[in-house]
Amino acid sequence: MLFNSIEYLVFFPIVFICYWLLQNRYKSQNILLLISSYVFYGWWDYRFLSLIIFSSFLDYFVGLKIEEAQGEKNKYRWLLVSLFSNLGLLGVFKYYNFFASSFSSSMSTLGWEVNDLTLQIILPVGISFYTFQTLSYSIDIYRGHIKPSRNIVAFFTFVSLFPQLVAGPIERASNLIPQIESKRRLNITLIKTGVFQIFIGLFRKVAIADNLGVYVDSVYGNYDIHNGSTLLVATIFYAFQIYFDFSGYSDIAIGSAKLMGFNFNRNFNFPYFSRTLTEFWRRWHMTLSFWLRDYLYISLGGNRKGIVITYRNLLLTMLIGGLWHGSSWNFVIWGGIHGIFLSLEKYAFSAFKIKTFNAFGYLYTFIVVLITWIFFRAKDLTSALAIFTEIFSFNYGALFIGNINSFVNAVILLSIGILIDLKIFRSDIPLEDYGVRFNTVKLSIIVSIIIIMLCLFYSTTENFIYFQF
């Protein structure tokens, strides 16, 4: 079920009303949330509910066993059960075909023909997100950061809570389980901030991202007939398309959660207003960035074992982060480029005793990110390299416009989106709290304007980009 679908427009109000009718019985609320979350996920394909239920049972049981185990070795063995089981499922569904086809291609290069080893496997929606969420739970118990939950309904709800189930934010048990295990109260602040963020998210997704996507798809779908200037504009559009698409999803998720009485972690903090790539990754998909930092980078040794090992850890973290996004060499290269530039930045900061770059850093950061988006968006490595080569040949010609109305709409909507971001960014008030600034009348006017714009600029595109991860 998609946030921008008619189904969700019916589903959420029904759940919302039933949920708050049970406001004095939070345990009943949790049962309703669990059932609703399974309906939400099963709407896509009910067969894959078995995977999320299995993962929930596994980590609930493992968490208890880690807590009860005597000695470090026994605790570690139970942690390995969680790691191998969860990553094994993720590996089979998401990466088996990638490695099988890569192996076959490698053998063919060496002159050895092997049978096709790939399988007809459907990638379950959201498996990367809820796998990381349950893994962090087991790891935190092993590290002694949290105690295991003995409330099985609360834990299953933590894993499957529908606003963040299929594309994040990746919530930590330390933040979400205590909220689930306690009474929630709906107040005017949660209503204002939640409603405002939901509609900002819908505007970002439906009005901005989807209209940019029309142009991006037309150019990247036929990259071989377009010149460097057209490919460059399409790549710039894609940089904002994926930002407004994914941040829009996060906004709707966080806003929906607020209306259910929950506070999710922030996932985006205006990443294109960054002066370094390091700062960019502290602002982009923040729950994933901090997950990779806390559970991968630090586990590898972080920056505690010398500068060379630090660079290695940065590169490995970003390579794995790239692979997390998709089973393709494009994503590995995307992560690798980020890892290299993050290492170069760390060297520059150390060598020149600086903490950040000057105003030129905004341009530098955007250019590096823009280059990597080519590999992220292109359908395969061959097309990515062709697009990269064409753009950096600097043999620019007339810009392909396509449908003039669609192109103008995309430019206008993008400009509005950037201005809104700039306004909120300069206010020093997080978007998550911005709605409280408006009284009921002003908020109603803002919502009405957004609804009108959604109707005017509605696109047939529905899927969120990050659903494929």
From TrEMBL:
One record GO biological process: alginic acid biosynthetic process
Q: Which InterPro entries match?
A: Ac/AlaTfrase_AlgI/DltB, AlgI, MB_O-acyltransferase, MBOAT_fam
Q: Which domain of life is it from?
A: Bacteria
Recorded hits in Pfam families, A to Z, give: MBOAT
UniProt keyword Transferase, yes or no: yes
Q: Which GO terms describe its molecular function?
A: acyltransferase activity
Q: Which residues cross the membrane?
A: 6-22, 50-66, 78-97, 117-139, 225-244, 306-325, 356-376, 396-420, 441-459
Topology in the lipid bilayer:
Multi-pass membrane protein
**Where is it located?**
Cell membrane
The alphabetical list of record keywords is: Acyltransferase, Cell membrane, Membrane, Transferase, Transmembrane, Transmembrane helix
List the GO cellular component terms. Answer: plasma membrane
Q: Where does it mainly reside?
A: membrane
Q: Which family does it belong to?
A: Belongs to the membrane-bound acyltransferase family.
Name of this protein: MBOAT family protein
Q: What species was this sequence derived from?
A: Gelidibacter salicanalis
Its ancestry begins with: Bacteria, Pseudomonadati, Bacteroidota, Flavobacteriia, Flavobacteriales
